[in-house]
Amino acid sequence: MAKKNDRKQQKAGGGTPATVALTAAGTEYTVHAYDHDPASPSYGEEAADALGVPPDRVFKTLVADVDGELTVAVVPVAGRLDLKALASAVGGKRAAMADPAAAERTTGYVRGGISPLGQRKRLRTVLDSSAGAHTTICVSAGRRGLEVELAPGDLAALTGAVLAPIGRE
After folding, report:
1. CA distances from 90 to 5, 42, 84 (A)
2. pLDDT on residue 97
3. What is the bridge-based pairing of β-strands 137-143 and 146-150?
4. What are phi and psi of 4, to 5 degrees?
5. What's the whole-number average pLDDT of the chain?
6. For the chain, which terminal residue's Cβ has fewer other Cβ atoms within 10 angstroms, N or C?
7. What region does 60 belong to: left with phi over 0, alpha with psi -120 to 50, or beta?
8. d(CA 41, CA 140)
9. Is 31 helix (H, G, I), strand (E, B) or coil?
10. What is the mean pLDDT of residues 145-158?
């Protein structure tokens, strides 16, 4: 994979905090853009379809509240987040989906474009252990219609993620 982000792309509006963070870290990644349909009922499934990538290789970034602390969960779009498993993965007791406005304010991204990378405030992150079955996975690059493909180990290293089985069918 080649780095698909350079200064020209950033100046032209192609760069996001996520791609800037990847470039700064020297991580190999590929950016995939597609035309986002605002009427799409699922951002993740839309990305998988548009990119022609199996839904178990495209991961959605969700923000949850675990015992009063915002926590990022990265799970395949083909499944759902197991909130109890997320809480357990970070040593918490209870988890609930975060208020969307709080998630946007804290991460600096809009809903449907929240990336686990380059967030305004770095949050605890849990990556579903199924990611390890793939050479590369896709996650949001920081805006709707833009995905970044990278190795799951690189994503975990850059976010300080814990790997745990937090996804369910």
Report:
1. 33, 27, 10
2. 97
3. antiparallel
4. -105, 25
5. 90
6. C
7. beta
8. 16
9. strand
10. 97
